Every structure is written in structure tokens, then in C-alpha cells.
Amino acid sequence: MPTPTTTAPATAEEPGARAKTLRGLLLARELDAARQARGFTTRNLAAGMSMSPAMLNRVMTGRRVPTALEIGGLCSLLDIHPARRRHLYRLTADADLTDWLLMTDAEENPVDQVEHIAETITCFASHLIPRPLRTNAYNDAITHTTAAHSTPTAASARAMEISMFLLHPRSLQHPGVPVAVMREQLHHLRDTHLHRIRLLPAAVPPEPGFRVLGIDHFPPVVHIEHHNTTVLLEHPAATATHTTFLHRAEAASLTVDHAREILTDTTGPGRSR
């Protein structure tokens, strides 16, 4: 699937959407969380900002991006840490941009923030077991074979709670993983994660892996990791191919009983005993 990487200004609208862009939504959610943490009502904070409650409400829901002067005043009234203020100033300045393309180890990678506001996360994995589902032995074997980063990406408890993983059969075997390690990994999936995985039939194309994050009042966001690059797509025109593929894959997924049977096959699918 082609991956658009443009960051040209655009509007990611859908019926009922509030914020126009993901940056605007992240800004609004952080400001509103700070407002609640500091005990401000919308009316009280609006008075402190010399704004109408209706105007402040539009800022707090992302329907209106604050001006440079307003974001400074909000950060001051809400006592936001100076280091965090720089991030909010940047979100304000870039609030009309859509999509992210950045190095995975960038200082301000927004993936954790997007996960925090997501209601659902669906992952499609075609060649490797996703890191939150791996055993230590499997992860060590994979990182040794692929020369990838040695530390698994830790998923927060909340992110795991709202995540579903669609696993292509190719992800259940790997030439660089010893049979005993793969057996342990498959049994770990069966015994620990069966309720959050869906196994797919081989007829589903093994497209490169990606995630779709569902957020209230906002279009689905597609998250792709490619080598050391993080891509976030938010405009429906950019995400439609991925979301359509995901819906079709999920509809074709195997039953839980069939998945349990496959994962109990200790040699893994496609291997001889």
C-alpha cells in the first residue's frame, strides 16, 4: 500500500468531528486536562483569559486554535511547566498541518500522546509478532537476527487494554527463531493473549504492518513504523486504503477455537514436525 508522507495543510473533517487536525486535537486535550487538574471551570478560566466561555470551550475541544498570545496566557494561568510549554507552542504554530513523518527516536515523538487519547487500537502484523505480545526469548532471537533495537517497546496497560492484534500466518514463523522459542511464543499467545488477537487466513495479503487508532470525534489515525521512521496519517484520503484493508482483514479472521488450535500446534503453521 502506498504511504503518503506529505505534511501540507489540510482539514481532516468527518461528520461530528471537532478538531480539524490531530495536532489541534492533542493541543486541546492537553489544555483541557490541565484545566481540570488545576480546578478551573470553563467559566472561571474564560474570565481569567478575558474570553467568553463559548470561545474558550471551542479552544478546549479543538474547534478553535488559540492565538500565540492566548496560548501564552493559558500556559501561565494553568501553570504548565516551561519545558512542556514549548511543545504546546509548537502544536499551536503547526495546528493546520496534517500527518507526521519523523525519526522514531525523535525527542517529541507524538505516538504515546495519540495512544493516550485513543479509544481503540487495531494492529495488523504480517511478518513478526508485535512487540507487546512477545516473550523475552522471541524478542531476543528476533533482535539478534534482524539487528534491531534490543529493548521491546513497552505498551502501557491502557494501550494493551484497548488493543486488538490481527496476525497474519507469516508472523507465526521465522527462520531465525529456534523451534523451542517459537513454540513458547505461540503458547504465550494462546494462554495469555488469545482474547486480544485475531488470526488471519493465508489468503489475506501480507501487507506491511500498521496500526489504526480510533479516537472519539476524529477520523481514524494510521500509525506506521518503517525502519527508524514513524509515520502518522490522519486525513481520510490518506488513511482510506489502510482502514478499508483492516476492516476486510478483520471480517476474514478465524474463529477463536480455530486460533487456539493453530497456536497449540507446537511446531507452528507451515513447519514439519
UniProtKB/TrEMBL annotation:
Signal peptide: none annotated. It comes from the Bacteria. One of its GO terms (molecular function) is DNA binding. Residues 31-85 form the HTH cro/C1-type domain. This is HTH cro/C1-type domain-containing protein. It comes from Actinokineospora spheciospongiae. The lineage of its organism: Bacteria, Bacillati, Actinomycetota, Actinomycetes, Pseudonocardiales.
